[in-house]
Each structure stands twice: as structure tokens, then as C-alpha cells.
Amino acid sequence: MGTILEQNDRTTPESGDTVPASMPTDTPADGARRATAARKGGAPPPDLELLVHGVGGTTPEEMLRDPRTCRITGDETAAIYRRADEVDAEQRSPQDREGPDRDGPIREAYVWCNLTSGNSSRALWLLLLPFMVANLAHWMRPPADRRERTVRTYGLFVRLVALTLTVLLIAGACEVALDLIAWQCAGSADCAGGKSWLGFLSPENHGWWSQPGRRLALAAVLPGALTGLLWYLSNRTWSAYESSPPLERPVDESAPEAGNRPALCLPGFWYGRRIVARLRAAHTAAGFLTIAAGLTLPTTTYDRRPGGGGLEDAAGWALLTLLAVGAVAVVAVVCYRGRSETKVDGELDRITITALPGAALAVLALSVLYAGWSRPGWSSTGKLPGNQAFCAIAIGEGALIVAMAVCALVLHRSAPGRTPLYGLAGPAVAVLACGLGAVLAGGVAQRFADWLDGGATPGEGPGIAPPVLLTWLATAIPALLLALVVLLLIFTVRVWRVRNRLLPTIMDGYPGERPDAVRTRRIARTIARAGLTDSAPWIVGPVALLTLLFGAAAVTGAWATDQVPGRAAADAPGAVDAAAQTAQALGSWLMGLAFLMLVTWARRAYRSPSARRTIGILWDVGTFWPRAAHPFAPPCYAERAVPDLTWRMETWTRRYGGRLVISGHSQGSVLAAAAVWQLDHRTRGQVALLTYGSPLERLYGRWFPAYFGPTQLLSLHGEVRYWRNLWRYTDPIGGPIRLPDGSGPEVDCGALKDPLVYGRTPEHPLPAPILGHGDYQADPVFDRERAGLLARLPEQTPPGQEGAAGQMSSGRSSG
Questions:
Q1: How are beta strands 660-665 and 687-692 bridged, if at all?
Q2: 292: closest CA among 174, 434, 457?
Q3: According to the model, what pLDDT value does residue 808 have?
Q4: Which residue ranges traverse the bilayer (predicted)?
Q5: What does each C-alpha distance from 42 to 308, 515, 790, 809 come to in angstroms?
Q6: Are the C-beta atoms of residues 585 and 504 closer than 8 Å to each other?
């Protein structure tokens, strides 16, 4: 670390990032001596409060409550700010500082919102939503109790599910470009004749591109470009957001306590360069091989016709063999190894990440040449051969999710705890990811089929139609939405009943106040709505189960009948036939609408900063976790934010020797806790943790129990010197920290009163707002608890005194 600190604005060879000029360029002892010389009379070291905002972001002016702020370290993406009059506060005594906080700690604001909602191009990340959800499933496994093999198997199945999502997306692009446009529409004189941009592909013109194989080869440019774009985005976002090297603290894996440490303590947890690069190569290769298969299968089907054979047939078999070998290689790379977290894994499998996508691209090029070879007698009729692959993908996803569920149940039984859905949260979320992927791929196909066919119902006539399975899946959407509406009605009734139970208790918190029925109902309704967060598993679980069952029914119906539901039910009783026709038409429209809404939302967010901020809130929650399962998911902002916070706490405490409180709101409290876990023992002795509106136990502890479960939070409570948590009953996100040994009261304050004042008073002549999840710093308890944390931290030896440098050096080695 010392060599890194001595570099000033030097680009690191690993990441291309620069070390900010404001970082200390001297040793801790030199900085401490200068701080002592600057502070009057050898006063104690200064105190620091490091603020971390929550979801949606905020400005440094709002965080520091001062219109004049300065960036002291960082860049446009993420930075630390101070009030303008506190830039050099370490060199002044508290009496010389200005402003209302001069008797309190120096205040800094870490602003990280641009990691998720800054650049307008990030709105396009909405199209990667299924990949993000699949990546979450990796981190939702139940905690392990000496079942490392089961943990690795669970992670393997999640990575394979993520791989099928990539294949599904590229297959959807192939369906539009190869089947609907190049095969069906361009091969039909009626369809191509009405579209001038397809005229040169029509067989009626007898042009060079009129042969089906050549049309397919040209259309393969679209899914190929999509695959290349996904590779580019994954590579670019890694360099921009996730390549910040953490503080390296080697872990002795042979030590008995090494295996029992919480995973977020491990030095390599927030730096997964090797696994992301390897998965990126495998998924890119899978995309190219999917396109190659879309070209090769219909071509070999023609070449194997009666009277065919010869050189083309042999070339087809050779390509099919290469495709099989490539598929095995991709699966082997995905299965080979998961994350390595006990050390900073900066090495790369350069042969794999170069050769695998390169070889797959070469196979795709051979497939293009093979399909483009002249076959004068070939004509395209019906649907593209090989589009039954969607059924194979759906069956594979279902089997993998069932295998995930078995692993999750085994892990849950070995270490039961307060986890949702009996440990099946990960498989449930994986089902939702696959459902979103099907809607994305199917919605594109349905809309293009409708557009190319002039609005005719897909599959009901000889016109342009997508694969039968996609129509069956669309037919299931109305039933799924109906079930969701029923669930929402149930929870609406539940909120109403809870509100009525709370009404008699509201005035207990405001003795002596005159009751106001409207005010009381509003407070009770807010508390009841906030409690719905704890009922989320009862929405996610049923929706995931119904999605899985409807998906299985759709695959069965498509496989058994090879007809769309409306035609398959033609001989059924009238009510069944009418229901099938209605569900098919409505579902096709809804699936297309869902895709159009996604694109419209992304387009609006591209132009509107306010909409982009809303989307940023989604990413704040969904992209906290590293890309361990899907390399094309939106980037993990914590792989930049956690090292930023860790570096700041380490370097400031070593340079000035002062006490530090890191206070995090909402998602910022999760970042703060993760950063504290990464500190060494000496630094943690000078740091206290203040969380408010925190989802650490209420959301993360339940949905990610292997990383924020009771055991892990108890470990954090034991490792950080002092920790206090503020929460409200009206907060739908934050909650108390329940620790398994009954030490919760040492962490939690009692529930804060909200609103602070019930009615109008001389001090509050206007009604006080119900704060809910926001503005915790407006409560007087906040300042009191912060001051209490600083008072409980031990007074540090003024920097620069004899032996200070030696003590800090020994503390460094002990970490």
C-alpha cells in the first residue's frame, strides 16, 4: 500500500484509473507531524463524519446543508465533498472553524449517485434487466453450514441459467432477423413486395441475395452486432466502474478462522476481474455459436434432402461438429470455477478470454460462408427449420432452476434461519429472470410479426408468425396478471385491517395531544403500508411459482400440438375455445406492449434527467452485487464505492489519527457496512458506524442471508467498535437490527417518533410531515447519537508525538 500512496496522479497498470492528487503522497508519520504542527497547542486529532447517501442520490449541498461545497478527492463519477470553509479543517482548531457544526466533527459527503444514474446512455441498461435479476439469484442462496460443495453446485447452476438467458436473447434476435425477416417475409412475394427495403432479397427479383442461404447470412449481421455490443458494454463498464483495486490484505487460508470470516471481509470480494472476464468470453462465444447454429441447421436440413449430399453435406456435418465442440467448451468454461475472494484476483485467463470468443467467431464466419454457397433450387417456405430451439431452451432453464431449488433446500435445512420462501428466494428470482427474458425475446418477435404481417393474428393463418412456443407463453400472461391483481387486492385488504388495528394506539406516542381523526388515520395508514415490505415474499413466491407452472404448460402445449393455442382449442367446448382465443390475442398484445414500454421508458430516461434518476434507484438496489453469474448485467457500483470508502477511512485515520464516524442512509448504510468489513483491525478501532433507514437486516439480511444474515451482522457488531442504528415504524425500507444473541438494543435505538409533532404547537405552527424513509438528520436523536458514538471512541494520541509513527506502523502490520 505504501508504494501506491506514494504515486501521485499515476495510472495504475491494472485498471487504467488514476490515484487522485488529493490522496496523501507521504507516509502516515509525515502527515501526522504536519497536522500536529498546524494544530494549536498539540490539540487532540480532529474527528470526522463521513456521510454516505442512499438510493436515488442527492447533491453534496443537500448532504452537507451548505450551498458552498468543494470536491476534495474523486472524479465526476464518484467523489468526496466538504463544505468550502472546512477544506483545511485538519490544520485548524474547532474554535477557528466556521458554521453551526464547528463544535462537531468535520463533515464529508461521499456522492456515488453518478455510478448508477448519471450518464444518459445508462438508461439503455433497462434492456439488461433479465441479466441483472439472474445475477441477484447467485447472491440469494441460504447460508452454508460446512456444505461448500453444495454452495459451489448452487453457484454452478445459477451460472448455467445465466448462460441460457444469453442464448435466449440472441436466439430472439435471430428469430427476428433470420426467421421473420430473411426467411419468412423476404421469401414471400406478398410480404417483400410491400416493403421496398426488402425488395433486393425477394426471389421475385432473382438477384444475388435472393437465395435463402445468402439472405440468412446477411441477416446474421444483426444478432452478431448485438453480441458484439454486449461484449463491448461489459468490457467498457468493467473498466469504468469495477476496476478500482481494493486495499490488499492477504488472508491465510490455512488459518482455522479464515473459513469462518464473513465473505464481505475478504479482500477479493469486491474485485472479480478474473471471473467476469472469463464469463464474458464464454457468453460472447455462446452468442456467436447461437447465430452460427441458426445459419447451419436450416442449411444442413436442405443439404440432407433426398438427392443431396456431396461436399455441402460433408461441410455441414463438419460445422455441426464444430458447433458441438464449441458448446461443450463454453459450458466447461462456465462450470470450471467460480469467484476467488480470499485474495485480489487480478490475473486473467488470457488464452480462454481470447481464444474462446475468437474461435466461436471463426465458426460463425465459416457458417456464413457455408450458408452463402450457391444453392439455386433452394426456396424458403413455412418457418425456419430449427426454431424448436426455444422449447429446448425453456426446458433447460426449468431443469436448472429445479436443480437450484434442490441445492437451496439442502442448504436451508442445514442452517435454517429467517430467510424468505424456505431458502427458495434464489430459484424464485431465477424464474422471474427467465420470465423477463422470455417477455423481452417474445415481445420483440410478436411485434415484428404483427408489423410484417399487417396486424394479422400470428399463427392463425399462412402469414408471418413467430415460433409456436412464444405465442403459448404470451397466452399465459393474462392469467399471470390476473393472479397478480388478486394478490394486490389481498394486500390492500391487509393494509386496511392493519391500519384499523393501529388507530387506537397512535395517540399513545403523543400524550396530552388533542386527537385528530384525519391525522391519526394518515399516520396509521403510513405504518401499515410500510409493513408491506415484510410481505414481499408472499408476492415473489406465488408469482414465481405460477410463472414456472405456466411456462411448463406452454412448453407442453407447444410441443404436443405444434399449433398456437387458438387453433389447438378449436375443437374444444365453446367456452374453452373463446377463452383460448381471447387469452392469445390479449397476451400477444400485452407481450408486445411490455417490450414497447421498456424501450419507451429507456428512450424517455435517455432524454429526461428526472426519469433517469428513477431508473437509477432501480440500479442502486439491483447492481450492488458483483457480476458473479452474468457478465452482461449492469455493472456493480459497489466495486467502485466500497474501495473508495475503505481507502478514505484508512488514509485519513492514518494521516491524522482522529476518530471517524461513517454514517450511511438506506443503501448507503449497506455500502458503509461493506466498507467497514474491509478495514483492518487498527482502523476499525478508530471507526464507529451509524446507520439510519437501513435495509441491512430487513431486506439484505432476509434476501441475502449468506452475506447479511444474523451471524454476519453479529460479526460486524463485534468487529466494529461501536454501531448504532436509527429506524422508524413509518419507514418502508429501513428497520431494526435483530441480532441472534439478544444484543440488538446495543445497536438499535428505540423506534424514532414520526411525525415528530402530532399537531400544531407554538414551536411547530404548521403540521409536521411524516418523514418515513427520509430526512433522519432532522430528528434531534441523530445529532445525539452521533455525538455519543464519537464520545465512546477512545481518544487518540495526538499525531506527531514520540512513538506515534511506530504505533501506526505496528497497527498496520496487525491488520
A1: parallel
A2: 174
A3: 35
A4: 153-173, 216-233, 281-302, 314-336, 348-373, 393-412, 424-449, 469-491, 538-560, 580-602
A5: 94, 56, 20, 21
A6: no
* pLDDT given for residue 807 in this prediction: 38
Starting at the edge strand found earlier in the chain, the sheet holding 48-52 runs 69-74, 79-83, 106-111, 48-52, 660-665, 687-692, 722-726
- Cβ neighbours of 609 (radius 10 Å): 11
pLDDT of 107: 94
Q: Using CA atoms, how far apart are residues 693 and 725, in angstroms rounded to an integer? A: 8
Distance CA 328, CA 322 (A): 10
Give the number of C-alpha atoms closer than 13 A to the C-alpha of residue 794, restricted to the C-beta side.
8
d(CA 494, CA 486): 12
362 vs 224, 235, 312, CA distance in Å? Answer: 12, 21, 18
pLDDT for res 634: 85
Q: Tell me the pTM.
A: 0.86
Sign of the C-alpha dihedral, residues 20, 26, 29, 30? Answer: negative
User: CA-to-CA distance for 270 and 640, rounded, in angstroms?
Assistant: 8
Q: Which residue has the cell 443431396?
A: 308
| Nearest Cα to Cα of residue 661 among 96, 101, 39 | 101
User: CA geometry: angle at 654 spanning 650 and 659, to 5°?
Assistant: 85
Dist. CA 605–CA 619, nearest whole Å? 13
In terms of phi and psi (left: phi > 0; alpha: psi -120 to 50; beta: otherwise), the region of 461 is beta
Q: What is the pLDDT of residue 234?
A: 87
Burial of 535: CB neighbours in 10 Å, binned 0-12, 13-18, 19+: middle
Q: Tell whether the torsion through CA atoms of 83, 671, 679 and 24 is positive or negative.
A: negative
Residues of the chain with pLDDT under 50: 1-34, 36-38, 40, 250-259, 801-815
pLDDT at 606: 54
| Model pLDDT, residue 19 | 34
CA-CA distances (angstroms) from residue 634 to 125, 233, 428, 436, 717? 6, 9, 20, 15, 31
H or E stretch at 593: helix 574-607
Q: Cell 455441402, residue?
A: 312
Grid coordinates representing 545 are 411459482
The pLDDT assigned to 18 comes to 34
What is the C-alpha to C-alpha distance for residues 148 and 706, in angstroms, rounded to an integer? Answer: 12
Kindly give the pairing relationship between strand 48-52 and strand 79-83.
unpaired
Three cell numbers written together for 348: 486473467
Whole-angstrom Cα distance, residue 629 to residue 349? 17
Q: What angle do CA 341, 342, 343 make, to 5 degrees?
A: 90
Per residue in 317-354, pLDDT (tens digit) is 999 999 999 999 999 999 987 777 777 776 777 888 89
CA distance 150 to 144: 8
Report how far apart the first and last C-alpha atoms of the chain are (Å, whole number). 12
